[in-house]
Amino acid sequence: MGGMEAPRSRARRMSPEARRAQIYAAARELALAEGLHAISKRTLAARLGIAPALVGHYAVSMESLVAETFSAISARELAEVHALVQGADGPRDRLAVLLRALLEGGREDVTAVWADGWSLGRRSEALAQAVHEQMSAWETALCEIVTAGVRAGDFRELDVPAFARGVMGMVDGLNAQALVRRRVGAAREAGERGELVMRVVALELGVDPRAFAASDRAPGPRAPGVAPSRD
Fold first, then answer.
1. How far is residue 197's CA from residue 191's CA, in Å, rounded to a whole number?
2. Buried/exposed code over 72-97 (b: 16+ C-beta within 10 A; e: otherwise)
3. 23 with 15: CB under 8 angstroms?
4. DSSP letters for the chain
């Protein structure tokens, strides 16, 4: 009849666990495609072809869902990079692989999720906590590599936690800037960003920058739906 909407088809019956997993998977896909800000009951319902009320039944708090979505994307990213790092020999090679995985191009979707996390986390305690935890996890991973290098005599003695915070801040800042610069065609090439960070890291660790050249390892295959790094 004129002016009336077609009735919504009934959602396929699923177990509570399967429905919740479906909603949270859709949130991750939506975050990577459009950003954390795009996650809502209405957008998830439209993506899955179900009623917004059903989304709300399984995700009562959108704030918590956004925080969990961010954590899941970052944790998977870290796990994938960790696997790459474990395939390298020695602290120098492992550090080089980690930095290249973070700085090489083609991973703008995850970078954008991090940028959203920093911005939206200013007004969401749940998201701020999730971002802080994931930042700490990345810093810990870097600390483990550098500490092993110091013990092995590959790197000079230094304040490792402060070094890790500084390096991750530099990486995150350069990658976040590249998102905006790319929109106007003025992005610094990923290789240039990598070389800059490598030079600074080598100086801080007291090693020749050429020491990292031997680890010219590709980041490896990209997992479906999630990029292995933040750029």
1. 10
2. bbbebbbebbbebbeebeebbbbbbb
3. no
4. -TTPPPPPPPPPP--HHHHHHHHHHHHHHHHHHH-GGG--HHHHHHHHTS-HHHHHHH-S-HHHHHHHHHHHHHHHHHHHHHHHHHTS-HHHHHHHHHHHHHHSSS-HHHHHHHHHHHHHTTS-HHHHHHHHHHHHHHHHHHHHHHHHHHHHTSS----HHHHHHHHHHHHHHHHHHHHHHHHTT-PPPHHHHHHHHHHHHHHHHTS-GGGGTT------PPBTTB-SS--
Question: In the predicted model, is pLDDT for residue 223 greater than 50?
Answer: no
Contact call for residues 150 and 156 (beta carbons, < 8 A): yes
Please state, in angstroms and rounded to a whole number, the distance separating the CA atoms of residues 51 and 30: 17
For residue 72, the Cα-to-chain-centroid distance in whole angstroms is 9
Query: What is the rounded distance in angstroms from the CA atom of residue 108 to the CA atom of residue 34?
Result: 11
Is pLDDT at 94 greater than 60 in this prediction?
yes
What mean pLDDT, rounded, does the chain reach?
85
Q: Can you say whether the dihedral through the CA atoms of 67, 73, 74, 76 is positive or negative?
A: positive
**pLDDT reading at 198 higher than 80:** yes
* 113 Cβ contact list (under 8 Å, min separation 6): 31, 32, 35, 36, 70, 73, 74
